[in-house]
Design goal:
alpha+beta; two-stranded antiparallel sheet
Length: 124
Amino acid sequence: MKPKPELLGVTGTNKRPYCAIAVVSVVIGHIFPQHRSMPRFVIAFALSLLVLGVLVTFGFTAFIRTIIDHQVALRVGGQSFGWWSRPPVEPIIRIFVYNVTNADEFLNNGTKPILDELGPYVYV
């Protein structure tokens, strides 16, 4: 049994099945009757966006990686070398040391440790 053309999306004398392009052409043809050749423009625009998307996906990652590698490398005269040799902020290291004063009771009986804070030891 042969399926009916209406079930396949085939209408009238135009015997092609409906697809997204055909739907777009019908909609654009009804909204803008002077632009009946618009589907070709839509196809060209969609293909150019697809190509641009592929190029950005693969090319953008490599481009960003190149910029990061160039900026992060420690080379004399580079921006990161200047920040490394003369930091914009003064680095301060603070070290806190704690002494457990009841270590035997803590280890043997499981009592709560009593901590004695030593420091802070500051290095500039």
